[in-house]
Write a sequence for this structure.
């Protein structure tokens, strides 16, 4: 057995938290050899529900689950943390402007970034799920100056998995035969799901991209607007699939991406592919020896460039807003 990992989950009493925690405790995220110390971090109004979830976790008698703590103090919540899933955030309520949303979340992720900076374990891995995820990750990272920026990531694995699923439907190839899909940019409706470098069974993704009507009118908007379609159908936002994406993300970060494949991760841009340095943008990436490496050397044609640039422009505008509010 490996040494135990301290896993902190914020928003633990929420829908994604509920869908993620049992799988984490079952070993699906850190692997079957790593015992888990769980920290459920909530705000005071979520503490009672988090207690209930903790009771159910206890009742599952998971062999790997060593302890559960329920906290509403970020400093205690991130003390010694190896993996932080930052799921809790301030949702957009009625009448709330985009600026108000960025301000409310800027506050939350400033506090959490500082607490991670002060107390988390060396080598902490942070995944931001709470929206606006990319910009929340940027705020947290900038408020944790002693933690390398590449330890802060945001979730686009759900978008990546959605793209694979749509490509499987279109091609008839099983999900398992699809690799090298890429999500670029922001986790929002401006994201660009790129299939030009994908492998679909024995074929290239580019051969499917030749059908521009399907690509532009069906595939790209279906992936990019899937979150809204699910809200419309369920009356609630994606929870189990978001939790699944978060678990896949951390699993691959810790244990590596499969050979001959890559995944999509929002991380601090080193200036790759013309994306301004320091923006938290989604890239195709592989996890090697526990660190993300952006896939290099992919040819980006005009069709893709235009779409990447549009999503990056949105990220720049979010960054400028949180900068003008003093969060970064
Ligand atoms: P939810 O509303 O069911 O749960 C959120 C929980 O976070 C609540 O229990 C709340 O008390 C808690 N919370 C709020 N502020 C907190 C803070 N400062 N510290 C700790 N806990 C806090 O929401 P749900 O469905 O679980 O979604 C969570 C977030 O994930 C939302 O922002 C949603 O937009 C985002 N999301 C992101 C996706 C992605 O792919 N990146 C996909 C789906 C959702």
């Amino acid at each position: 057995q490996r040494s135990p990992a301290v896993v902190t989950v914020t928003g633990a009493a929420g829908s994604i938290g509920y869908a993620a925690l049992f799988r984490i405790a079952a070993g699906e995220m850190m692997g079957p050899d790593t015992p888990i110390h769980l920290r459920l971090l909530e705000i005071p109004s979520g503490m009672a529900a988090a207690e209930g979830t903790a009771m159910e976790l206890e009742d599952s008698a998971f062999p790997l689950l060593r302890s559960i703590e329920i906290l509403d103090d970020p400093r205690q919540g991130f003390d010694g943390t190896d993996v932080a899933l930052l799921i809790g955030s301030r949702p957009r309520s009625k009448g709330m402007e985009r600026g108000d949303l960025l301000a409310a979340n800027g506050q939350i992720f400033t506090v959490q970034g500082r607490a991670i900076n002060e107390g988390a374990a060396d080598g902490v891995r942070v995944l931001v799920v709470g929206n606006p995820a990319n910009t929340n990750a940027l705020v947290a990272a900038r408020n944790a100056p002693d933690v390398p920026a590449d330890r802060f990531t945001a979730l686009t694995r759900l978008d990546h998995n959605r793209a694979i699923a749509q490509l499987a439907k279109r091609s008839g190839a099983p999900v398992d035969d699809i690799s090298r899909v890429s999500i670029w940019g922001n986790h929002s409706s401006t994201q660009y799901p790129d299939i030009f470098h994908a492998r679909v069974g024995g074929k290239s993704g580019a051969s499917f991209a030749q059908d521009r009507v399907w690509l532009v009118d069906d595939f790209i908007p279906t992936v990019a607007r899937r979150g809204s379609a699910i809200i419309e159908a369920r009356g609630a936002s994606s929870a189990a699939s978001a939790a699944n994406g978060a678990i896949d993300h951390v699993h691959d970060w810790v244990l590596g991406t499969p050979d001959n494949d890559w995944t999509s991760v929002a991380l601090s841009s080193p200036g790759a592919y013309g994306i301004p340095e320091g923006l938290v943008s989604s890239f195709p990436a592989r996890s090697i020896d526990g660190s993300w490496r952006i896939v290099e050397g992919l040819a980006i044609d005009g069709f893709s460039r235009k779409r990447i640039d549009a999503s990056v422009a949105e990220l720049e505008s979010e960054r400028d807003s949180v900068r003008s509010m003093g969060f970064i």
